[in-house]
Design a protein that fits this description.
With 131 residues, this protein is an all-alpha fold. The protein has a domain of 44 residues. Helices cover 69% and strands 0% of the residues. It has four helices and no strands. The radius of gyration is 21 Å and the shape is elongated. It starts with a helix and ends in a 16-residue tail after the last helix.
Length: 131
């Protein structure tokens, strides 16, 4: 069993390429969302009374932390527009985490089914799982 798992570490298949493509897409799109979110937070929050967003660096920190942890120690957002951006960042973060988890699940289950002699997209008896 251990030898089989170690052998898997040295193989590269289409499913590896698909996983890398999905992860790259998620990373690139999240970076774009981060930059756009930072710009919006900076524009909406920098002049609000009591804000902790004093520059673009603060806004970038806020949007990045929202995407990574869905929380921040900053008191922001204080404006209605900033709150809308905050909610959008949180929804994006939850969606990306879910999609990436699904990508890993698909990656590992495809390899396990193949190693068990089952054709991907079929049940153990060989019937198609597609409608």
């Amino acid at each position: 069993m251990i030898r089989e798992e170690l052998a898997r570490l040295t193989t590269w298949e289409e499913r590896h390429e698909r996983l890398v493509a999905r992860l790259t897409l998620a990373l690139v799109l999240t970076a774009v969302v981060d930059v756009v979110g930072a710009m919006l937070v900076w524009m909406l929050e920098r002049h609000a009374h009591g804000t902790e967003i004093h520059g673009i660096g603060d806004a970038f920190f806020f949007s990045t932390v929202q995407l990574l942890t869905v929380s921040s120690q900053l008191k922001n957002p204080l404006t209605a527009g900033g709150r809308i951006v905050d909610i959008a960042l949180e929804i994006w973060a939850i969606g990306v985490v879910t999609a990436v988890a699904g990508s890993f699940s698909s990656f590992f289950s495809t390899g396990d089914r193949r190693d068990a002699g089952q054709t991907p997209g079929t049940d153990p008896s060989g019937r198609s799982l597609r409608a």
